[in-house]
Write a structure and sequence with these properties.
The protein has helices spanning 8-37, 42-47, 79-87, 99-102; strands spanning 50-53, 62-67, 70-76, 108-112, 135-139, 144-147, 152-154, 166-168, 173-176. By secondary structure, the protein is an alpha+beta fold.
């Protein structure tokens, strides 16, 4: 005859459950720092935003800055460019977007300067560059023409030039990247 003590099987089940629980807690505790290490560091997050002083850019001038390794075109548009961009708001565009959907302030056009066809950098930022049939940008690699709002008008590019997230911090400072104003 075997005798089973009153705490035999119940005690084994308790010890098994307690050991399993402690093992799971240990694994979770070991994984937290590992998973946290996969998040971007503070210096990488800081590179995600770019503050640009636009106070010295005169009307009709365009500059190129680099944000997240991409060229960003910033153009201080003339009254003629703004008029042409709004007059060309048509539903017949390949990638229909009105000029008002692409800008926060009409005189400032901010675009990622990468052709949406094969990733070339279109011409049109410098004074002597060809700007294509619509006065905006021209990608000579395959002949894509963009208008003064960065919308595709002719050629193989399927989409308009991308508008990056941006916000005006003041009349002379533009932040590309984070679209919320910093808290003081």
């Amino acid at each position: 005859m075997s005798s089973v003590s009153a705490d035999g099987p119940d005690r084994r089940q308790f010890l098994l459950a307690a050991t399993s629980t402690m093992g799971a807690v240990g694994v979770a505790a070991a994984l937290v720092p590992f998973v946290d290490s996969l998040n971007p560091s503070a210096d990488v997050l800081a590179m995600g935003n770019l503050d640009v002083d636009i106070g010295a850019i005169v009307e009709g001038q365009a500059i190129t800055v680099t944000w997240r390794g991409k060229p960003v075109f910033i153009r201080h548009r003339t009254a003629a460019e703004m008029t042409r961009a709004t007059a060309e708001d048509q539903d017949t565009l390949r990638d229909p977007q009105s000029d008002a959907q692409r800008v926060i302030r009409p005189q400032w056009l901010i675009l990622v300067g990468i052709c949406t066809h094969l990733g070339c950098i279109p011409l049109g930022q410098k004074a002597g560059d060809p700007r294509g049939d619509f006065g905006g940008w021209f990608c000579p690699c395959h002949g894509s023409h963009y208008d003064t709002s960065g919308r595709i008008r002719k050629g193989p590019a399927p989409l308009n030039l991308e508008v990056p997230p941006y916000v005006f911090l003041s009349d002379t400072t533009l932040r590309i990247g984070e679209t919320t104003e910093p808290t003081a």
